[in-house]
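2024-03-11 09:14:02 DEBUG pipeline.ingest accepted 1 chain
2024-03-11 09:14:02 DEBUG pipeline.ingest length=340
2024-03-11 09:14:03 DEBUG pipeline.predict start
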Amino acid sequence: MLDNLEIRDPVHGFIHRRSYEQDIIDTRVFQRLRSLRQLALANLVYPGATHTRFDHSLGAFHLAGGLALALAPKSESDQRLVRLAVLLHDIGHGPFSHVSEPILRTHAVPGVLSVEEESKIHEMISARIILEDEELGRHLGDTEREKIVGLLAGTFGDTYLHEIVSGPIDADKQDYLLRDSHFTGVKYGIYDQERLRNTLCVHEENEERVLAISIDGLHTLEQFVLAKYYMTTQVYRHRIPIVADGTARSASEVRRSYRRLRPLEKLKVEKRGWTLDVLNVVRSLNKPEFSLPDVYARTDELSELHPDNRHVRDKIRQQLQVLRDLGLLEFLGGGSYAVR
């Protein structure tokens, strides 16, 4: 295959990528980013802000490659790792980008996706996709995938390499300030990226190699910090997109709840009460998998709701079968079920 392929980008000019990087770009999980707007509903205020996570990922990838080349010129393996990590850093984003984060966090399945308080849910999802996606696995070995996830999380590689990928002045921020400024039509996010790159350096501190900036780049760094401040106050926290984002988040929650309960429309009205009550008990268990005794333990609660029925356990078994027929539960055998 051809190497040194080019993409013309409105912010950075030509973006060069190698054939193995193009293979990653062509995967379904990466192409999905074409449908995710970078700034969610900010186009209601800034009509030009229709750029996507796809554009941004390519731009950040381009800048990360330049930073890695400048700071680790003798290590092609480090350069490759940094480029791939930044290329894949956003593949876990949900609809409307950051707007969907609270929803994804709320409905993360316990035991499947462990989300710590300080973590961003899309970063956890990105890590799972990188490690487990079959199509990515055809182009990246298991060891390389683990290194990419480790570099993104800061558990693998030199600190300065991680800071290129995720840090106060990482390639991600360096791209989105310029890109968001360009597509919103404001000038707040403009800074001298070339000068910033040329004045960044690697500094050894306590036997750790960290990203630093020379004294000659101090004013450029100040320009970068102010650009981020003004973009935050004037664009990212503009009142209209914030209200629109909140509306989209609420609509997504309502739609999700409706889709969960919609199969119950198939039931006769008099049967819905028992089915809903058992479904609520199952959901309150907050487990991806549960057993019949788990539900039996809530017999008293169901008896209070249906005092005229003396055969509550029989009813529980019946309603679990109804929920299976509706596609809301999966029977695993041995009295165990999984929530769908």
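2024-03-11 09:14:41 DEBUG pipeline.report The chain has 17 helices and seven strands.
2024-03-11 09:14:41 DEBUG pipeline.predict end
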